[in-house]
Design goal:
mainly alpha
Length: 206
């Protein structure tokens, strides 16, 4: 297909209503207890409309989260290319800003899904995005493994877990800082560490 297929705005609206209902119910009672009947009732739609787009609640969840993660990856990829992969502590890479901007756009959904203990797959999806972003950044900053202080894969896992923890904290506190501020602070701590000055005292042996 040469031209991108147009999406009916009514379909988009219907899917969004069902997604919003699902997320609200997950927050109220947990995913395992949610039923299709409860979703359609909360969305004020009938079951026939639901099954026109989704096979079950798992399909609704997967499609909704996949669309959101794909949108995040696309925004980060586009901004990374536009900024030519530059990194410094004073001006955060645009893809880093987009990471927080996109999550902030769907902050309620991200917060609920990252807090839901029965859905680790969503956390895994986001961790995979973070790991790819960190790996790309490390390759730009230092492509030589011999010049790293720890194995590359270990560093990637460490920073991905740290970033995810900060994102969850940011969401749980109602996003108290802007996307640009968050990106700048994480960029700074990633490159410089959290200390303005490090003083290591060595005790003399007795």
């Amino acid at each position: 297909m040469s031209k991108k297929e147009k999406v009916d705005p009514r379909v988009v609206r219907t899917k969004r209503m069902l997604t919003d209902a699902l997320i609200s119910l997950i927050e109220e009672q947990g995913f395992e207890k949610v039923t299709v009947q409860a979703i359609t009732k909360k969305a004020m739609l009938n079951r026939a409309t639901f099954y026109l787009h989704f096979t079950d609640k798992y399909d609704l969840l997967e499609q909704s989260t996949d669309d959101m993660i794909d949108e995040l990856k696309e925004a980060m990829k586009t901004s990374f290319v536009a900024s030519k992969g530059t990194y410094d502590t004073e001006s955060p890479n645009e893809s880093f800003i987009q990471l927080f901007a996109q999550i902030g756009t769907y902050d309620y959904i991200y917060r609920v899904l990252l807090s839901e203990s029965t859905m680790p797959h969503f956390r895994d999806k986001l961790t995979a995005v973070l790991s790819k972003f960190i790996a790309d950044g490390m390759t730009v900053m230092q492509p030589d493994d011999d010049l790293l202080t720890i194995p590359r894969e270990m560093a990637i896992r460490f920073y991905a877990s740290a970033f995810l923890g900060v994102i969850i904290w940011w969401l749980k506190n109602d996003c108290p800082y802007t996307a640009k501020y968050m990106a700048a602070q994480l960029m700074k701590v990633t490159i410089q560490g959290p200390y303005k000055q490090v003083v290591i005292e060595q005790k003399s042996s007795l």
